[in-house]
Every structure is written in structure tokens, then in C-alpha cells.
């Protein structure tokens, strides 16, 4: 499982985040865009080294790039009230890599951050690239591409669900289940809006296929997420973490996040 998760995280660092940053219309994000490849390369290399000083130092380089994203997030001007849902989603996306970086630095140093097992920290790194960053950014994008109540709901529920899942790590499994349900509702809404946009005649075939495929994959992958969270909260039979990484993880990382980001980039969408 470790090799698979490392590959998915590397895709998130090296491809998903930099493509996602190209979807931000604000010119002030330019510094973060330019610095990100260096931090991402350091973070990706750290994944494959034995735990220790060198791996921790490289992971810290990734954390510095993530910190630049956080600084940019803080510097963003206050938006008009009508843009608050989109801004909540964008800020969640910008902060997501910093949460991933904290888990990565701890895991690479062998430190049980907040008492979590190292394997859980590894999965946290993956989660906050694809749910924390990609899903939130795509949800926020919907408010510009297909504005309306559904887009606003997606832009608010994806960050809320992500926050609840994180809170569930520290409190109770039923909180994590609630977060999974809220996150799934938001991601399904974003997926539905993406599917509708993919069917418009203004897109070329490849772009439409990428966006439509990401929406279809998302619909199935989040069923797995809910089934796992439900099993954890109730004790009912549910997939193992290794099985979840091989199914839900691969689907979300490659089918949803990677295809979705590339598709939206090809479509020229900006948030």
C-alpha cells in the first residue's frame, strides 16, 4: 500500500496542485506558482527515502512551499458577500497542502503527530491533496462556471465536510462519518455540475471526456468513502485501508482530481 500511496501523493504534488494553481485568476498567486515546483520536487523525493534527517529536510522544503500558499491565502482581499461560497472553497484548497505538509514532515521524521500512527499520517497527506485541495478548488470553480444555488452549496459543503473529517480524527468516528456524508454531498453536487458542463457543445471532445470521466469516477469513488466511514463508526463490515487505497484512492487521485484539473485547465475555466 505504501508504494501506491506514495505514487498518488507524488501525482498530487507534481501535477494536480500546480495545474490547480493555474485555475486561479488572481495574479498575486504568481509567486506561489513559481516556487511550488521546487517544494513539490523536494516533497516527492522525500516520500521514497528512509525516515530520518534527509527525508525530513526535504519534506520541510515542501512545507515551505505550502506555507507560501497559506501566506497568499491570508493576503487575498475580502470578497463581496456573493463570492463568499467560492472564497471558502478556494481558501480550503490553498490551506489543504499545509495540512498535508504537517503530516508529511511528522511522518518522515517518525514522529507520531497528535498520537496518530505513521500510516494514518501518510493517508492524511494523500487526503489533503485530493479532497483538501482538488475537490475544494473544483467546487469553488463551479460558482463561476455554472453559478447558482447548487454551485454555492457545493462550494460550502466540500470545505465543511473536509473540516468535519479532520475534526473526526480528534473526536469521534461518528463525526468523521458526518464529515464523509457532507463531503460526499458536496462532491456529488460538484460532479453533477461538471457532468452538465461536459455535455455543452463549446468543449472539444478530449476536454469533455476528461470532465465527464472525472464526474463519473467521483460518483462511484465517494460511495466507497461513505461505506468505509460507516463501517468505522458502526462496526459493520467495510473495506480495509489497503483496499480503499487501491480503489477509492486511485479513482479520486487519477480519475477525479487529475482528469478534472487537466479538463478544467483545457476548458479555460478560472476561479
UniProtKB/TrEMBL annotation:
Record flagged with keyword Aminoacyl-tRNA synthetase: no
Coiled coil: none
Transmembrane segments: 54-74, 86-106, 118-141, 153-171, 177-195, 207-230, 242-264
Alphabetized UniProt keyword annotations: Membrane, Transmembrane, Transmembrane helix
InterPro entries recorded: YndJ-like (IPR025450)
The keyword Membrane is annotated on this UniProt entry: yes
Superkingdom in the source lineage: Bacteria
The protein, known as: YndJ-like protein
Organism of provenance: Pseudosporangium ferrugineum
Lineage, broadest ranks: Bacteria, Bacillati, Actinomycetota, Actinomycetes, Micromonosporales
